[in-house]
Predict the 3D structure of the following.
Amino acid sequence: MIEIDKYYPDMEIIDSDIENLILNTIKDCDFDKYTNEDIDTALKKEYLDIEDFKALISPMGLMRLEDLAKCAKEKRERYFGKNVYFFTPLYISNYCENNCIYCGFNCKNNINRMKLDFEEIEKELIEIQKSGLEEILILTGESKKMSDVEYICNSIRIAKKYFKNIGVEIYPLNTDEYKLLHQAGADYVTVFQETYDKDVYEKKHQGGRKRIYPYRLNSQERAILGGLRGVAFGALLGLCDYRKDTLATASHIYYLQKKYPQIEYSVSIPRLRPTVADKTINPNDIDEKKLLQIMCAYRIFLPYINMTISTRESAVFRNNAVQIAATKISSGVSTGIGKHDETNTHKGDEQFEIADNRTTDEIYKTLKELNMQPVMNDYIYV
Ligand code: SF4
């Protein structure tokens, strides 16, 4: 198996200090040392540093969850008001060349593989648009061979006819390829590092281009250099020590934000879900209390970033999360291929099970009842 630091010849190497900064931040971290006073200090500060963030995600921070939630809610309302941004993911292909042992799409799994053609993609988009959504996130499994950059760019161009805001979650690209996505109309790029712990990363990613740890880690920076206006991050909580991965994700955003302050940053906090690959995965290793602690800590430390709460979580949890810390919510979600257009018989399997099956309309109405303001889009091209 290839070493995780060894780039394939066609992978671009950029001159970046970000990986070292993150790895130094998470080195020898003792979360048990933080005290009540450290939490008080962090909660009182207007601008927190990394040490304060470590305190917030520590075991002591968990004991002070109510205070964290109060502070997070205050910051959320100060910077985002009652706004909750809506989007939905559209999976257009589930072919994947990677072997991530925790994922239902992994190349060793015998699932129903599918790739939509452009006509099918357009039909899916038309169906989704009927719900009133204006933001779409286009996703593929990670196979450059089956879903090449041209296929993705054409899909973005079609989506641009129906949606105002386009996100893309695909395999990592070089800067010039990100430039092509940007020119096609993509607004932001999402890449989950999954885990920042190199040893665990190596064990969980047993084949394919994803194995190359630094190439993945520098994706967001290459996307920024390619002209994207937004980048999104996430660690898959449950793969490794969740506090360490949360700290790494926050520091990834923190250091990039210092370097590129003009960019829109977003974070997701996905927990492992059961998949067709492994029904034994227990999503409750990180319970909802811990998940909320992480969300509050992000909101307090990085108050301006967007935060997405996915359908991996229950309707009740999501309703509460958007009132305290999260700003973005997905609705009308299917993680399978070709599931929006009912006339389509060409369908592929789901990546993972979801816990909130509500339609856009149902979530919209619930949020209004909770005195929140659903927003379909607030970005205007001039
Ligand atoms: S997590 Fe992504 S890259 Fe890994 S097997 Fe699943 S779809 Fe492929």
Observations:
- The radius of gyration is 20 Å.
- The chain is about 40% helix and 10% strand.
